[in-house]
Write a structure and sequence with these properties.
heterodimer; A: alpha/beta; D-Maltodextrin-Binding Protein, domain 2; eleven-stranded mixed sheet; B: 0% strand; elongated
């Protein structure tokens, strides 16, 4: 009888322990935002789960979604592929996990090798309509631009002074031609520019290099003779660079601290490098 | 997610096939042999190859979305460039084909825009876009048949089954 009681007590204790273990299992981390950062986070999600047991769910939507997702507490972390604005910094904190630059790309069949700001403006406002206005290649220009709410568009607007037609602030150099195809993610942009011979677009350097290395028929144009290497981008010499940030509410810092450290650690920074971006921590 | 992509596609493709099958005998009957001008086998081959390549582009993008694999998107864009080569040839052979390039371009842009919708899990808009895409593809088919029709008086490409290709 005594043994039976003992066994019963042990069973209860084990059940209780398993309940404790179950309730201590960390909640999944939901991250939404910039599609530029999405592949880095997706490649880290599995490793992080294996290491800590915490699941990581990653969703795109663009940098604006990343800010909204975190500010409105839909999730603990948001991905934002640009520097935070002053008003965003008032209620959100951030960690920069990598750097990227904006580049101009054309189809690999296009003979053009380099481009300057003035030509970009003339192309995207619709002034230049055929490539034979710039070279001896006779193809209509096909513009590929980004939809509102994407930080790649913000960078483009800032650099060129040419704004999206729906931007309430008029661009000092006009607005993007209504003929432009509008895309959401970098992957769409690259696939579109790669499949249309006359296309020109602006994209993340990291994504462009990564896809080009995988065989995507695109060409990255050199911009006004600026070198596109780590040193030039880190020093700010290259004119259109951006931060890859993870944002969170200050009160949630403790809950995201481990994941942020993981992103800044060797595995995280290696993923940043492998996907074509520039790590913030030196090897 | 696969079934969410495949089911509307299969339904739309099935509906399209049904319409084609229903109308095929009527179209065939409407055109008498005396009204048509024969296309050369090479010209017929161009149209059929165009049809095949457009389908291959579409298939590659769909595979890319389902497998979440960039390789398929690389394949889709390379195939798309081949479509443009064919369009150049078609335009040289048939001036009527001039507008086909813009139609295909719009179709490809619409097709590619679906990638983000599914990758970013905006499924409702993705499914709606898939249905629009079906119309866009049918529009290309319609344009192509109109070109064949203006050349030969017979816009029915399946009639080429009689030819020894």
């Amino acid at each position: 009888m005594k043994n039976l009681c003992c066994a019963f007590m042990m069973t209860l204790l084990m059940l209780g322990m398993s309940e404790v273990t179950h309730s201590e299992e960390p909640k999944a981390l939901h991250i939404a935002g910039a599609t530029t950062i999405q592949p880095v986070l997706e490649s880290l999600a599995g490793d992080y789960e294996r290491k800590t047991g915490q699941k990581v769910h990653v969703q795109g939507g663009g940098s604006s979604t990343g800010i909204e997702h975190t500010a409105q507490e839909h999730g603990l972390l948001g991905a934002v592929s640009r520097a935070l604005k002053q008003e965003e910094k008032k209620h959100l904190e951030y960690t920069t996990i990598g750097l990227d630059a904006l580049v101009f790309i054309v189809n690999e069949r296009n003979p053009l090798q380099e481009i300057d700001r003035d030509t970009v403006i003339r192309l995207f406002t619709g002034e230049i309509t055929s490539w034979n206005q710039l070279s001896d290649w006779d193809r209509p220009v096909v513009l590929v631009s980004k939809e509102m709410g994407r930080s790649t568009l913000d960078l483009f607007e800032e650099y060129t002074g040419v704004h999206h037609p729906d931007n309430p602030v008029k661009g000092e150099n006009g607005q993007i031609s209504a003929e432009a195809y509008e895309i959401a993610s970098n992957l769409d942009g690259a696939t579109l520019a790669a499949g249309l011979p006359g296309a020109v677009s602006y994209l993340s350097l990291g994504t462009s290099q990564y896809l080009q290395n995988r065989g995507m028929p695109i060409k990255i144009l050199s911009l006004e003779d600026y070198p596109m290497d780590r040193q030039s981008i880190v020093s700010g010499q290259y004119p259109i660079k951006r931060e890859l940030n993870l944002v969170y509410r200050p009160e949630n810092k403790e809950m995201v601290k481990d994941f942020l450290e993981f992103c800044l650690g060797p595995e995280g920074q290696d993923a940043v490098r492998q996907l074509g971006y520039i790590p913030v921590q030196k090897k | 997610m696969k079934s969410k992509i495949i089911v509307p596609l299969c339904l739309a493709a099935g509906a399209l096939m049904a319409v084609l099958v229903m109308h095929y005998p009527q179209i065939k009957e409407q055109v008498s042999p005396s009204e048509t001008e024969e296309l050369t086998q090479a010209e017929v081959g161009l149209f059929l190859q165009f049809e095949r390549e457009v389908k291959a582009v579409r298939q590659a993008v769909q595979n890319g979305i389902m497998a979440e694999d960039v390789e398929y998107l690389v394949q889709a864009s390379s195939k798309s460039l081949e479509v443009f080569d064919l369009l150049d040839e078609l335009t040289r052979a048939f001036p009527e084909a001039q507008g086909l390039e813009k139609t295909y371009q719009d179709f490809y842009a619409q097709l590619v825009s679906i990638i983000s919708l599914f990758m970013e899990k905006r499924l409702e808009r993705g499914r709606a876009r898939l249905m629009e895409l079906e119309e866009s593809h049918s529009f290309i088919d319609g344009k192509m048949r109109a070109i064949v029709d203006s050349v030969t008086g017979d816009g029915c490409l399946p009639c080429f089954e009689d030819l020894d290709l």
